[in-house]
Amino acid sequence: MGRRLLGIWFPRLASEASQRRRPVEGPFALVHRVGNADQLHCLNADAQGQGLHRGMALANARAICPDLCTRPADPVAEAAALASLRRWAMRYSPLVARDGDDGLLADITGAAHLFGGEAELLADLHDGLSRAGLSAVAGIAGTRAAAHALARHGGGIVPDGQLMQGVMHLPVQALRIDAVTAAALGRAGLTHVADLAALPRAPLARRFGADLMVRLDQLLGHQPEPVAAEPEAPHFGVRLTLPEPIGLTVDVMAGLERLLDRLCDHLSHHQYGARRLRLELSRVDRETLTVEIGLARAMRDAGRMAALFARGLDDIDAGFGIEAMRLTAPVTEALAPAQIVMGQAGQGADAMADLLSRLGNRLGFDAVLRFLPMDSLIPERSFQLAAAAYSCAARGFGGTGPARPLRLFPPRPVAPTSDPRPGTPPAGFSWQGQVLTTLRAAGPERIAPEWWLDDPDWRTGLRDYWRIQTHQGPRLWLFHTPQDPGWQVAGEFA
Question: Please, which of 72, 115, 389, 480 could form a disulfide with 365 given CB 3.0 to 4.6 Å?
Answer without folding.
Answer: 389
